[in-house]
Amino acid sequence: MIKTTQWIVVTLVLCLSVSVAFSQGLAPPSNVTAVDTPNDDGSSITIKWDAAVEGSGISGYQILRRIADGELETIGALLPADAATYVDSAIEKGTAYTYIVRAVGETEATVDSEQTPLVEGTGEWFHTGKIPLLIAMLLFSAAILWNIYDARSGKDIFVRRIPGLEAVDEAIGRATEMGRSILYSTGMAGVSGVATIASMTILGQVARRTADYETALRVPCRDPIVLNVVREMVKTAYLEEGRPDAYNEDDIFFITESQFAYAAGVEGMMLREKPAAIFLQGTFYAESLILAETGNSVGAIQIAGTDSEHQLPFFIAACDYTLIGEELYAASAYLSREPMLLGSLRGQDWGKLLIFAAIVLGVVLELSGVSWITTLLQRVS
Amino acid sequence: MKRQVPLVLCFVFGIVMILTQFSPHSVSQWVYEEVISWVLIIGPFALVLATVTLIQTHTARIRRRTEHWQYSFVVFAGLIIMVLIGIFFTPQNSVFEWLYNNVQLPMDATMFSLLAFFIASAAYRAFRARTFEASLLLITALIVMMGNVPVGDFIWNKVLFWTPWEDGVSWWRQWILDNPNLSARRGIILGVSLGVISQSIRIILGIERSYLGGGD
């Protein structure tokens, strides 16, 4: 008897809600779909529906979900009336869910959409949105590989003169003549920084020459891993030049990981030892000018190189030579003159040409009112 | 063999790490995070070696009585005090925090503040209008500097009130930053990005192997 009464009450309440909703003209959300969110790791499901038209009386939406045989639960906060999408990121992988979108009227009346079919979040192995990026990467890599392959045939490859790298011998020669040391900083980044690797490559070339000239090469390091790699590199360079006796492990040492304490340490070295040549190669931050200006004040010949574009003006103002951006990466090829490395430089130039052509084409198309290239690039970024 | 194993590892991990950038799958992301955490494991071991070299360097300085050798005692005092307090009383200890906030931070701030003087001396050299380029730099720098301070527009509006532009120096400053400056910066960034990709390909393929300890 009680059950029957409860059933009647629930039915009446439901009928009343529906009638109130319809009396207000509150239509249930239409075209409700729930799909596995594309290009994710399977941790979300996207629910979409047709947005409410103006004057529909809908003040917001509430999303409800349930697992196959479970209870209906409300998720997330009340969405605004103009919302048409909701991403449920609080799902469990491997569990199927079904969703209902509840429209909430201005008078608190509600009306539910139809229940969506069961859907499960699955991770994708390939991000389809990154196809243009992949194509660009493959094209650029192919250009570099082709040029490396081509360079193996022994063709002469022209590389423009880079004054900063031409001056390396001059700087080392000056230090040798003056009987003073050379100070080399690999910058502030760790060993995983590409600029640090480029810097270590230049250091290898510098070490070969200092081994020949018997000039002291001092390398203060900020990163412990860089310290160990640099020691190994310089030691090998001295060995290969037949001067293992000239190698002094104590000349390559750790100062600190703290940015300004490192700057203070290197600055102190510059003022005390007055090196004849200073190399500042790698990634630098605010300490760049502190180091470069101190080096300038002790009268050292300074060759800087960095990919941190914000620090370039400081180096240009305070140093004798500056390797700007990509020149730092070209240094190993330039100094070693190895055909395969030079080939990769030409491949790099092909890439630049490709980008330049895309920019010109984009500008021309935009001026003509066609914006597909801009849209494509925006989508990739 | 000593050279081949690192080259193979470099190739395999280089390719795998590139592929993880194109795959949002949880397995792919797990591989990425796992490899990154291996790098973190190497760090503490290297730090021990680095600390040993720091101690060796300063011990040698004290032994040889090199210039300002007394300061090496300050290095040892700082190292020992911070390490002992950090180990026995944890870095959250009030003494440790006091030393950090009242000794290390002010010293860092002092070094950073020195930049103002270094910028002045570097600017003096760079802005000497001896060539056309230096003169151009001087004029541009003046506009940007004046555009950054309220008095710049005040002067413009008082002196150049007859021009059609109000707050003209701010407008020119913004134009310089948004057009010639941004174009040059983007050009450098493009070159750097291509350089990074090229260098990475050389490293992954084992063409660039000087980081392994030698040029060949």
The main sheet of chain A orders its strands as 11-10-9-12-13-14
Q: Please, how many domains of chain A? A: 3
Sequence stretches where pLDDT stays below 50 over 5 or more residues of chain B? none
| Major sheet description of chain A | 6 strands, parallel
Number of helices of chain B: 7
Radius of gyration of chain B: 27 Å
Radius of gyration of chain A: 33 Å
Query: CATH H-level name of the largest domain in chain A... which superfamily?
Result: NAD(P)-binding Rossmann-like Domain
Task: Give me the secondary-structure category of chain A.
Answer: alpha/beta
Range of helix content of chain A:
40-55%
Oligomer: heterodimer
Per CATH, which architecture of the largest domain in chain A? 3-Layer(aba) Sandwich
Task: Output the number of helix runs of chain A.
Answer: 11
Q: State the shape of chain A.
A: elongated
Task: Report the β-strand fraction of chain B as a percent range.
Answer: under 5%
Instruction: Kindly estimate the percentage of residues of chain A that lie in beta strands according to DSSP.
Output: 15-25%
Terminal residue distance of chain B: 14 Å
Count of DSSP strands of chain A? 14
Order of helices and strands of chain A: HEEEEEEEEHHEHEHEHEHEHEHHH
Q: Quick one: biggest sheet of chain B?
A: none
Structural write-up:
The complex is a heterodimer of chains A (381) and B (216). Chain A is built from eleven helices and 14 strands. Chain A has 381 residues and is α/β, with parallel strands linked by helices. Chain A has three domains: 2-120, Immunoglobulins (Immunoglobulin-like), CATH 2.60.40.10; 128-144 and 342-380, no CATH class; 157-337, Rossmann fold (3-Layer(aba) Sandwich), CATH 3.40.50. In chain A, the strands form three sheets. In chain A, strands 11-10-9-12-13-14 form a six-stranded parallel beta sheet, with helices on both faces. In chain A, strands 3, 4, 6, 7 and 8 form a five-stranded antiparallel beta sheet that branches. A three-stranded antiparallel beta sheet of chain A has the order 1-2-5, with no helix packed on it. The radius of gyration of chain A is 33 Å and the shape is elongated. The two termini of chain A are 65 Å apart. The relative contact order of chain A is 0.10. Chain B is mainly α and 216 residues long. Chain B has three domains: 1-69; 80-119, no CATH class; 127-216, no CATH class. Chain B has seven helices and no strands. Chain B has helices at 4-20, 26-64, 71-89, 94-126, 132-148, 150-159, 168-204. The two termini of chain B are 14 Å apart. The mean pLDDT of chain B is 89. The chains are: A alpha/beta (381), B mainly alpha (216). The interface between A and B is large, with 86 and 63 residues.
